[in-house]
Amino acid sequence: MLDVTPLTEGWTLRHEGAALPAAVPGCVHTDLLAAGVIADPFLGRNETEVAWVGRRDWTYDVALPATSGHEQTDLVFDGLDTAAQIRLDGRLLGSVRNMHRSYRFDVTGLGGPLSVHFTSAYGAAEAVRDRLGERPNAYPEPFQYLRKMACSFGWDWGPTLVTAGIWRPVRLEHWSTARIARVRPLVTVERGVGRVELAVDVERTRVEAGLTVEARSGGVRASGTIDGTSGTVLLEIPDPELWWPRGYGEQRLYDVELTLSDAHGPLDAWHRRIGFRTLELDRRADAHGSGFTFVVNGVRLFARGVNWIPDDALPSRITRERYRHRLRQAAAAGVDLVRVWGGGIYESEDFYDACDELGLMVWQDFPFACAAYPEEQPLRGEVEAEARENVVRLMPHPSLVLWNGNNENLWGFRDWDWERRLAGDSWGEGYYLGLLPRVVAELDPTRPYAAGSPWSGSWDHHPNDPAHGTHHSWEVWNRTDYADYRRHVPRFVAEFGWQAPPAYATLRRALPGETLASDSPGMLHHQKADDGNGKLERGLARHFPAPEGDFDRWHYLNQVNQARAVAAGIEHWRAHWPVCTGTVLWQLNDCWPVTSWAAIDGDGRAKPLYHELRRLYADRLLTLLPRPGGLVLAAVNQSAQPWRGTLRLRRMSVEGVTTGETTLGLSAAARAVGEVPVPPELRPAGPKEFLVADSDGLRALHFPVPDREVPYPRPRFDVTVTPGAVAVTAHTLVRDLLLQADRLDPAAEADTGLVTLLPGERVTIGVRGWETLDERAETAARSALYCVEPTR
User: Are 204 and 224 in contact (CB under 8 A)?
Assistant: First the structure.
């Protein structure tokens, strides 16, 4: 059988004439950090102090053993970041220039010093740019000239940390006669039978050897022969249990095992987990334009999605446990779709395994984002090689539901003055409308392909036309108020979002010793968006008076505003199902501590937005929405059961007096939206009144004017602390109460986000990680509680 020797020990990194210990997998930044050569680039403004790292060449060394009892030994790199030469005992094995693919070198009978010399990614990219000519992009960095994680070069939420290194595992593979080079599983369900067609490619040392393959799954076996270097095995499993997205059914997974043998016995084996499900992307034209609806196992879905960026700016640090924790957080928030954004990477198997198990559908971008990409060599061949490898690598995963060509490049060509500046130069259209759909159709015809996001389906419509295909909604954040989300009903909202600062404890760790202020040097450095603070301030001013000089209020109110903004969009769009068929929030996570659009900050702490997502993405959602004909209560029911209940409507004064009340019937069919017009006599009249809707433990609120115009009473409430909980009892209206548990202890977490209490109501907030229970506990808890206060 094939024998594997991991190469994880004994590596060194050359630096200033010294050999520093190196971790493999890893990168130059993590090795220099471990050796004390550089300071943590995530803290303060250290990012700028380590910029030199990305401008230098680096070399990794190890001693390679030469002994093996097999006919062939291969040196296999799962990932090299990015432009490198590999030499063994002075002999050049090969040159590479793509972070997104693996490499294999025949080292049979060889041994001695192995070196991997990385050229600066800047130098490699700039050399291609000089040869092929300048192309426009959204940032002043040359990321589109090298097949490397684009956001290594910085983004509007990420640091500029241009990495290099052996970022994925490396090993020696020893084998004889033949090995399995590739298995391409086509998994389908037809008339109640699960079909697994395994296309097997092998590499041989002996052409004359007779080879067979045997496959096993679900108690079924099948075998076949290898003709030359390829063969096919078909497994048919009767009545397979189906894999469903989270919330629609179970995530049944089947082990598939394949063994390659010759007359003397097994030579190599392959194992993956698969799932049986049918998949369609309905893009048909209708009365509203053309849709974009995922249909899994015959069920049409409203996708409750989040955009995913690399979870660390130094991605070699992301562990299997970290992937699972972050994705469990997504699932716990009601998310059922994760879009792997195109400025990052094809994630590791650990990511997709977790999505399979959690029922999180994966929308996979090919790594192209916000730039015009040359289509000439040396890039074109690399693009095809990486696409072919990763399509086959990821296609066993039932969670994978879409291949997407790029992020915003088709839109950029039309709207960002690229067409004029390019003057006929290539820019990537040939990838998105030619090469990539051809590769997907050839290798993975079981899945849909989209040319980009946003994309209307053809050049007949504007690429970001909300009536056709996918839409990115950024005008609201950039220029207007979040109430403007209600002005349009896109068919599928693939990006939208609103910024907020990270948790207080995250800022304290990231900016040690700094007096925090919205415009302090560290805060501004950890705000990467163009005019980001200006947009925060203008967005806040539309709803709240400016918290002049009060950082704690600024911090709290911006987190409230983020949650309110996202709620305004999702409530409106979900209420327009089935015209709108999905929302994909920008973004779930951060890659370092930063003010951004994320729901979970760079230290893994949940912002109030995360808790709000749990309400917004629940199977059942109540929302009060202004419509041209008046106020409407929408009951959004994404569950498989009809929703029938009693709706209590109360018009109340801000002093807590009920000024009108009625009880109505509420009904929403399964996977449907029910609407109840609010009687005119219950609509709030002026800034002193608001509307409360309650049904089946769910609540919706409607205030007719912005908070800055509401004459809130000064909030009064009691606080009681018990082990693991903080209880708050309101004596007045308490709007958007928030316990910032990390102010009690950096390790503390609250299980509840923003909550509005009417007079006499009580909420118990669970707290983990705060063990201090003494006479000061109530005072500490009260100091960590924030709510909307009356205008001063």
Answer: no
